[in-house]
Amino acid sequence: MIYLLNIFIYLLTPLGGVLSYCSLLRIAFDAIFGALLFLQCLLLLHMFVVMLP
């Protein structure tokens, strides 16, 4: 899902000059989804530790 969004945003940027708006949008998406993935991993790790006998 994340990679599809990145590809879509890459396609929106023209091949000549990179639009700063689209590149900033892509960086923001990367940061947001990266943070969400990190939080999800932490939550899974926490649940795993809590479920240990």
UniProtKB/TrEMBL annotation:
Enumerate the UniProt keywords alphabetically.
Membrane, Transmembrane, Transmembrane helix
What organism does the UniProt record list as the source?
Nostoc azollae (strain 0708) (Anabaena azollae (strain 0708))
What name does the UniProt record give this protein? Uncharacterized protein
Q: Where are the transmembrane segments?
A: 7-26, 32-52
